[in-house]
Design brief:
The structure is a single chain. By secondary structure, the protein is of the alpha+beta class. It has two domains: about 55 residues, Signal recognition particle alu RNA binding heterodimer, srp9/1 (2-Layer Sandwich), CATH 3.30.720; about 70 residues, 2,3-Dihydroxybiphenyl 1,2-Dioxygenase, domain 1 (Roll). Helix content is about 15%, strand content about 35%. The chain contains two helices and nine strands. The strands form two sheets. Strands 5, 6, 7, 8 and 9 form a five-stranded mixed sheet that branches. β8 and β9 form a beta hairpin. It comes from Pontibacillus salicampi. InterPro entries: Glyas_Bleomycin-R_OHBP_Dase, Glyas_Fos-R_dOase_dom, MMCE/EMCE_epimerase, VOC_core. This is VOC family protein. Keywords: Metal-binding.
């Protein structure tokens, strides 16, 4: 079995397209779009990310409720955190959290969906917990 699509449910598809483009630097793809029901977002790899129209927002309490979290890899986590804070994005903690491959931090989109940013440690980096 191979994953092929990740759906993100949002209450305002037009605002979601703008937010994911402007804040996360993801571009809407022309292929497979069924606007105003859903739009395809370019992830830069074979995985399709589909923004899908929902009736209402969600309010997930991360690590307290079952949920699916999408993790976006970045090359400089602290730089991206600063950028997201300047854009008004709600980070779920003040400092990145250690995980076996590097550091990560969770954030919410305007619709209550929780995602993460991760900076993976290279093979040459020591396995310190920052």
């Amino acid at each position: 079995m191979k994953m092929c699509i990740i759906n993100i449910y949002v209450s305002d598809l037009d605002f979601a397209m703008e937010w994911y483009r402007e804040v996360l630097d993801l571009q809407v793809k022309d292929q497979y779009n069924t606007y105003p029901i859903a739009v395809d977002v370019d992830t830069g790899n074979d995985m399709r990310l589909l923004l899908h129209k929902a009736e209402k927002d969600t309010n997930i309490e991360i690590w307290n409720e079952s949920s699916t979290i999408i993790t976006f890899e970045v090359s400089n986590l602290r730089e991206k955190m600063k950028d997201l804070k300047e854009r008004g994005v709600q980070l779920m903690s003040d400092e990145p959290q250690w995980f076996p491959d590097g550091d990560r931090i969770a954030f919410k989109d305007p619709f209550g969906n929780v995602h993460e940013l991760a900076e993976k440690r290279s093979e040459a980096d020591p396995e310190d917990r920052r």
